[in-house]
Design goal:
This protein has about 240 residues and is of the alpha+beta class. Helices cover about 20% and strands about 25% of the residues. The radius of gyration is 18 Å and the shape is globular. The N and C termini lie far apart (about 60 Å).
Amino acid sequence: MRSLPLPLALTARISPVAVLACAGWALTSGPAAPPAAAGHGAAQQTSTQSASGSPGSSSSSGSSSSSDPAAGATAKAYSTAPSPCTSVPAATVKSLVPGAKTAGKEIPSTDTKLRRTCSWNALQGYDYRWLDVSFEISASEQEAQQEYQQRVGEKSGGGTVPGLGDSAYSVVNLTTQDKQQTREGVVMVRVSNALVIVTYNGSDFETKTAPGTDEINKGAIQAARAAVGALGGGQSPSG
């Protein structure tokens, strides 16, 4: 197989480059979104996102937010982060990241009780896919709301995702580095005092193009729905 000249923006995700197409290769570095190139950094919103809801607004009528500020400051439904590597079904991992080990790889954390992340990545032929799922547990619902709003504000151009958690937001961006396109989708979900962050991206190293916006956006939302369902394992008993 001919060698694949990879762009600098992707070398942080793929190591070692010399054996990407050989059996037994492994990717050990964490994801880092490449800088947007001129003309390609505009966020893209798809039809799967709500066109009317403002970023960061509640996407479910059953939100657990309290009208009492004092209660919101102390409300805490989750005390620990669930296992991120078992949060997405194996069948979903196989579909979103063909060729990846379904067990995933958990990223080291300074506090695994409050923050846990799992990554799946693989190169099949010339198609590369990367999926991250992260759980972050805040001290209160109010603190989680503030963190969620801040992150949504940093990711303009997307839209709300109806029916997912208490609040959910999705955004897709296309970047180009060394003539290689990468399309990345990010979904952020708040459920009470927990945040779920999903990152899903892909590239085609033969054509130097990227997967379509709809494919990346739907894949990220699919993984996010599974991850939100896994939060049940981290819920602390009431009282």
